[in-house]
Amino acid sequence: TSHLLLDGVSKRFSNDHAPALDAVTLDVAAGSCTAILGPSGSGKSTILRVMAGLDPVTSGQVLVDGVDVAGLAPERRGMGMVFQRPLLFPHLSVLDNVAFADRVSGVPRAVARVNAELYLDMVQLGGYGRRSVRELSGGQEQRVAIARALAARPRVLLLDEPFSALDPELRSDMHALIDDIRSALSPTIVLVTHDRDEASAVADRIAVLHEGELLQHDTVDGVYTRP
Ligand code: ADP
Ligand code: ADP
């Protein structure tokens, strides 16, 4: 679990447009969960992509435990990411989807599969390992995507509207799952959502973005009570 700090991060896609992120300084304590809320176009996806090192910053730094991620190869940044669409590998079994990160880093198949079973258990899909991902429901697919991200033992887990395609009943199950994961592994989590109830349900702090600026980063109570 790691401390994540965005220090004066700006991101411009073009000089003709306002910056997508404008001098954002955001401090996410190790093991905490921050939800990023904001209207469409406010920079939520951009901030997550910048944290993951998928998009370079225009200025400022993204620091994980004090180390600038810009200088690290993608696989050394310690970022795990889950998107709105699970993007599983359709030709691999559920278990091998979860074992993928270990396999890429050279862990023998048998060991990788034993590890993967642990993460499938954690997302309550123990026993689903041999199935094809094509047999899964949308909620199950997203659980596998979460297990796959966790299996890479990320220092920071980045979730980009991971539950917005799911039915409301399923969403509350997923919020409980995030609580379970936090109890078991204490990863540092940044969750992008446009759902205030979701933010309040899962996060310790809420960051409010508006036109690329960070307006607030406060506890759930603080965000809704302070002027
Ligand atoms: P949100 O996720 O809150 O909807 P985004 O981070 O997707 O917002 O977008 C923030 C701003 O950056 C928007 O004005 C958007 O048009 C712009 N933007 C995002 N990605 C790109 C891109 N790849 N190229 C150009 N502009 C982009
Ligand atoms: P391979 O060396 O190609 O993995 P296996 O006989 O181990 O050969 O596996 C054949 C297929 O069955 C694989 O593509 C894998 O997806 C699936 N498979 C094998 N073992 C497991 C397992 N323990 N859990 C899930 N799927 C498995």
From TrEMBL:
Superkingdom: Bacteria
Protein name per its UniProtKB record: ABC-type quaternary amine transporter
GO molecular function annotation: ABC-type ferric iron transporter activity; ABC-type quaternary ammonium compound transporting activity; ATP binding; ATP hydrolysis activity
Residues annotated as signal peptide: none
EC number: 7.6.2.9
GO cellular component: membrane
ABC transporter domain: residues covered: 4-227
Phylogenetic lineage: Bacteria, Bacillati, Actinomycetota, Actinomycetes, Micrococcales
Keywords, alphabetical: ATP-binding, Cell membrane, Ion transport, Iron, Iron transport, Membrane, Nucleotide-binding, Transport
